[in-house]
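Hi X.,

You mentioned you wanted examples for the new student's onboarding notes, showing what a folding record looks like when two proteins sit in one file. Here is a clean example. The first protein comes first, with its sequence line followed by its structure tokens.
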Amino acid sequence: MEALVDLAGVHLDALDGGPAVLDALDLALAPGTLTGLIGPPSSGKSVLLKLIAGLIRPNRGRAIVAGVDLLAGRAADKRQLQRSIGMLFQNNALFDSLTVFENVAFPLRRLPTPPTESEIGTRCKARIEEVGLGHAMDRFPHQLSGGMQKRAGIARATIAEPRLRLFDEPTAGLDPVTGARILALITELHRRDERGVTIIVSNEMDTLLAAVPRVILIDRGKVAWDGASALVDQAPDTVRGFITGEAA
């Protein structure tokens, strides 16, 4: 099956002249892939998500996402690609001046052929109810708790049924119970449309490993390990030590 995300030898220079942010990174993700992306701080995880989303252009290598060449592709093709991506940023990136409903409706209204306002209303209300925010539909982001903002961000990132669903630290700062619920919601949305790819960046190891079948460890801009979550105990000592929190 052709990879939806096809990266080979991808290199991204550091702006300050230091070590490369991404260094000859190889990664292939086929449709239907649900994976966790982990690694030490500043290892390149968030940068890799932004590259896949077409927000950052690599310096060299092969970077093809959903058939679009991120290095040599036309600007119009890249814009079209971004319409097929839903992304939750670390800080949720909700529009402060828009209500929860308007934030979730925003991606639908930006589609080349947007749904009718009636359909937008129906779809957004259903998704907002699904993430448990039906009572907060008319609230603004500053009126929401951190967990509620995460859920609003997930609703917005998935409302347009994107092929690529990218979640950067969706459980950061949340209590374990709320974090587990957030991951359960993301994995359920993935199961409903397994034609796409879902990537979850998280260092909440226990809940992440229980939620995803595959985990990828990024270290110093490279893929240090890529395997089944169930086989973590067979990973090299240094990788297993990071994943389990034990000394290698």
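Then the second protein repeats the pattern, sequence line and then tokens:
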Amino acid sequence: MAVDFLSFQMNIDILTLFPRMFPEVLSESIIGRASERGFLNVRTVDIRDFTEGKHRQADDSPYGGGAGMVMKAEPIAKAIASAKSQVPSAKVIFMCPSGKLLTQEKAIELSKLENLIILCGHYEGVDERVKTLIDEEISIGDYVLTGGELPAMVLIDAVLRQIPGVVKEEDSVRNDSFFKGLLDYPSFTRPEDFEGQKVPEVLLSGDHKKIEAWRRKQSLKKTLFKRPDLLAKAELEEKDRELVKEIILEG
């Protein structure tokens, strides 16, 4: 079913042990403006609210021994059930190192969904039995963080900017690095001369056709030398391939 972006609002429930990490990030910049304009509705849910006992314990030592603590299954399951009671069709995403790497394509895919539930792990992870309640595991890179809160923020930012109308200048989104499989071209602003480093003359020419051609070549060059793996997978036109050959000959 096609998404009507004129009335689109993404609803996100963030399940976390540390809800106070989110308000400042969610109220600033593009995310904050998107919330004000009705594109985004985020609710942080404290997993400890679904624990029992006065100590509100949401973790415990792992069976079999070992260092660290593991988040308990019961409070997580209850938190997910509570969130899904509002929207049963909401997709549940778990931010963890073992998930599939977040890509631009995945961000675009998720931006078409109206309801997401993001589970943030912490400590030594979550009880494995919780995985049956999760639709997808996502990682933001091959490294380990203290918890899933920062990755959740990254995911929200990456997804939100793909929703039409969230970023005022749509060309800015279309020219983002990775949007079409390539890195973005280099950008410059005033002054024209900064400590002897001058803005390329073509950008001062006012010739939009030449500027567009220069930017395309620079995008290909940047990708070739910094992320050749991306260039190998990118869908290039014949003129792009000629530019790549030219760049290689130039050294």
